Amino acid sequence: MKAKELMHAAPVYPFSAIVGQERAKRAILLYFINPASGGVLLSGSPGAGKSLLLRGAAALLGTRRSISVPANVTADRLLGAWDAAAIVQGRTMTHQPGLLAEADGQLLLTDHLNLLPETIIKEIVRAFSMGVIHLHREGISAVRSSRFMLLAAMDAEEGGIPSPILDHFGYGIALDTAESLTSRVEIIRRQLQYERDPDAFVHRYRAQDEALRQRMEAAARTLPRIKVGASMLQLAASIAKEAGIASSRAELALIEGARAAAAWDERGEVTSSDIREIAECVLPHRMSAVADESRAADHSPAAPDSAEQPGHSPEDDTSRDSRSPDGSPDHAASGSGRMTTTSSPASDPSASRDEDEEGQRLSASEDRIILPDDGFRLQPLDYNLRRKMADGGLGKRGRAHANMNKGRVVGAVTPHRKVQADVAFDATIRAAAPFQTIREKRDGLAFAIEPGDLRQKKKESSVGASLLFVVDASGSMAARKRMAAVKGGILSLLQDAYVKRDRIGMIAFRKGEAEYVLPITRSVDAASKHLRDIPTGGKTPLTAGLVKAYQTLELEKRRNNDTLPMIILVTDGRANESPSGLTSYADVWKECLSAAEPIRASGIPCLVLDTEQGFVKLGRSKELAQALGAAYRKLENMDEEGVATAVRLTKR
């Protein structure tokens, strides 16, 4: 039964049947006409049609075989390996080709490119750019041809790709999400037709696909005759320069893409309209890093108080946050851990007096957005604190050794058990070599290996951290603008998040709730967008933030065993709001300490950055750090880079 199912696998969804995504389809066609314009990288949210476009394009090309790179591909499968049998039997060295060698002269498809290990991505891009593979394995080197066409796809929300790698792709297309009701209905209608009778559906669009293929082949034949005037070269260079792109690959992709566009439209010369059309396909993905730098340079001082802005009433905020438990709706914690209570404690004079004065000053600054500023300096961490961070923190994070089945080979070890895989052939042969003169030669073998000679590859892989910032976004934070330093520190950490394989998320707690404002991600673009729109103001539901952080990282650990979780709590410790409706400051504080217990018991490393200001200091952040078993640091003398430095030291 299974054999029949495999033999009658559903045909590929036709390229011409895909609804919308006209820019992506045109970019793919132009790339097929002129491969010199560079590969195509599609970016879009799940369900946007990335995989459909890749498979449909591969079927449309027809003349080339498509090779797919699986998400769990190993370096040996990608690059190839040496024939172990030939080595042992003393024959000529034989290299077994990997996927990149098999793709020579063919089409390579890579879905979810950004989720592949960094080393794998670099090997793919290197082979694509150079056209050859330089293989170095087991102390032996070889070179294989690897000239292929490349179509790739990624989901930007799952993590970004460094700009040097993006620059190797000629076209970078952000897929559109179907907005109109008509388009959405048509997508559903065609999908149902395809699922009901795939063969009939494919047959219905076969003529359209064939027409595209014939026109594409005709354009490719006329491509050598397409002329590019000097003025068009100058226009391409000026557009790339104006976009702030330093690499010359942009201009080359622009010109080659414009030549393909002219050939497709059956014109003999490139026009300015060709250049400008292709610029929209080859420049945006190269401009992302430039845009990030521009946004960072455009940081302005803190926005004006919301009380001075039209349509804002400070009294509304004050009344909303000062209602007694009896006058508030009875909200409960949702299943996701989102706390929505708005109760307000009303005792503990030692704390309430300072809170009341501060609340009066802050009611007008409710909901304003604060951007990173300067003016704070980080004091060097003392030796005992560093040692505490190392002992209780992540240790040598980023490294995992011989018992792992993935990573780069760093040596060989004698296995404690039977070797199942990853035999280190060079080390095995070296171990057996001294005993060849006294061992009996078996039939047909020039080299005798016994079980005791076997050596296993010792591997090492980078393991990233999941850094969860839990930030007090209440009015007490906004008053001293410490949110500015926090946001700046997170943005600084994001710059090396890809290299370190780290992922960063953020929970903000204010006004009776803890909100997951930044899902854990490696995407610099996604994080920057979320961090620049975080409002501040209101009371401090610290317990809600701790509960949400614990639930989030417990779920993250179940989803991803290879990550190292860490909490960075940024607060002044002045909890004044309870998810369970407590009205005493003392009871609210005890509730916070109780919420810290499961976090400490789980062994999740924590760092508490204390933002408490003012003449009267309660020192509760330090007490909370002790309850969490966390490293502690005052934020009073930190700037945005100081926040990042403290986190980096904790991760070591």
TrEMBL record:
InterPro entries: ATPase_dyneun-rel_AAA, BchD/ChlD_VWA, ChlI/MoxR_AAA_lid, Mg-chelatase_DI-like, P-loop_NTPase, VWF_A, vWFA_dom_sf. Coiled coil: none annotated. Residues 340-350 have a biased composition (Low complexity). Residues 313-324 have a biased composition (Basic and acidic residues). GO terms for molecular function: ATP binding; ATP hydrolysis activity. It comes from the Bacteria. Residues 290-368 are annotated as: Disordered. Residues 466-652 form the VWFA domain. Belongs to the Mg-chelatase subunits D/I family. This is Magnesium chelatase.
